[in-house]
Amino acid sequence: MQNYCAYTERTKQEVLKKMQGYGLSEGDAEMVMEKLIKAGFINEIRFVKSFAGGKFRIKKWGKRKIEMEMKKKGISGELIEKGLNEVTEADYQETLDELLEKKWKLIMRSAKEEEDYEAKQKKKQKLMRYALQKGYEMDMVVKSVKRMKL
Question: What is the pTM of this model?
Answer without folding.
Answer: 0.85
